[in-house]
């Protein structure tokens, strides 16, 4: 269906160029076509590459086998291949980025403090299943171009989301999947508010403990009320934080947060931090994290 939709857009564009050629001249039509193609290439291809390249903290499979084992098992449940690379990013989300067949799974570091292991399995399974059924063109093309297609393909998109939810249950269990998918939007809002209000303390003293403090906050009455106010379900399953999957989390968590220091901080933006590299003498460091490297 997507191929037919893109072919229709190409035919419409050809019709516009033909009209321009008839009304003015062929030269103007060719120049217009060249300008449009160059603009699209620069705006949606080059910019996309610059935004996705080397973002997040690289996770060494040998150093953190438990986290990688979770990804392997969830990918099998989703019926897709394991990502080539695993990184931790600053967002309260999980996202698959694919370029030239190379797949990178970016798991938000805040998820490790806001979800249990079972809930993380559900969220990761949902993302892997959804991304494997989604064409790269759907995420690469601008919304203004894809909006008519999304309206036409609503039944197919609903079926895709239903399949992703089934995979989330298969990857964990029904309670964890329902809890994770229901409270994730609330977690995003509470994390955003918490980061803006509490990050200044950590970042003035340059103490990389924001994710740990967020986990502690969620266990308080204020944290529970904040989640409920943001729309989270009332009954949340108990369970330790997903950062338990990291090897030596008491060392790994501070190291990871140093790698994402600027991105996690109060002045966070969508652009990658300038200082996104391992400190001198730490090739992989205690946590096995080495931005700019590919996983084994």
Any chance you could write out the topology, listing elements then pairs?
Blueprint: H1 2-23, H2 26-52, E1 57-58, H3 65-78, E2 85-89, E3 94-99, E4 102-108, H4 109-114, H5 117-132, H6 136-140, H7 143-152, H8 154-171, H9 174-204, H10 210-218, H11 221-229, H12 249-259, H13 261-264
Parallel strand pairs: 2-4
Antiparallel strand pairs: 1-2, 3-4
According to DSSP, the number of beta strands is 4
The level of helicity is 55-70%
Instruction: Give the tally of structural domains.
Output: 2
Number of helices: 13
User: How would you describe the shape?
Assistant: globular
Structural class: alpha+beta
Instruction: Give the strand order, joined by hyphens, for the main sheet.
Output: 1-2-4-3
Strand content: 5-15%
Mean pLDDT: 74
- Sheet having the most strands: 4 strands, mixed
Rg from alpha-carbon coordinates: 22 Å
Low confidence ranges:
268-292
End-to-end span in angstroms? 37 Å
Order of helices and strands: HHEHEEEHHHHHHHHHH
């Amino acid at each position: 269906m997507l191929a037919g939709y893109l072919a229709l857009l190409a035919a419409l564009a050809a019709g516009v160029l033909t009209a321009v050629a008839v009304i003015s001249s062929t030269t103007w039509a060719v120049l217009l076509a060249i300008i449009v193609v160059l603009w699209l290439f620069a705006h949606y291809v080059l910019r996309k590459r610059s935004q996705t390249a080397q973002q997040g903290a690289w996770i060494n499979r040998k150093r953190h086998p438990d986290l990688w084992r979770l990804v392997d098992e969830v990918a099998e449940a989703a019926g897709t291949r394991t990502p080539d690379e695993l990184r931790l990013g600053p967002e309260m989300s999980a996202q698959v980025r694919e370029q030239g067949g190379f797949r990178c799974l970016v798991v938000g570091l805040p998820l490790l403090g806001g979800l249990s292991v079972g809930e993380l399995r559900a969220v990761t399974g949902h993302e892997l299943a959804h991304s494997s059924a989604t064409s790269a063109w759907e995420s690469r093309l601008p919304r203004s171009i894809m909006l008519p297609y999304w309206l036409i393909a609503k039944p197919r998109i609903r079926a895709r989301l239903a399949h992703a939810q089934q995979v989330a249950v298969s990857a964990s269990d029904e309670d964890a999947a329902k809890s994770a998918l229901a409270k994730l939007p609330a977690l995003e809002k509470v994390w955003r508010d918490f980061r803006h209000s509490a990050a200044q303390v950590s970042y003035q003293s340059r103490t990389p403990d924001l994710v740990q403090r967020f986990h502690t906050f969620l266990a308080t009455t204020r944290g529970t009320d904040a989640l409920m106010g943001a729309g989270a379900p009332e009954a949340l399953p108990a369970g330790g934080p997903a950062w338990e999957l990291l090897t030596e989390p008491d060392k790994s968590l501070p190291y990871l947060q140093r790698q994402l220091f600027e991105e996690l901080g109060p002045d966070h933006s969508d652009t990658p931090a300038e200082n996104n590299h391992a400190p001198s003498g730490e090739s992989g460091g205690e946590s096995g994290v080495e931005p700019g490297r590919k996983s084994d």
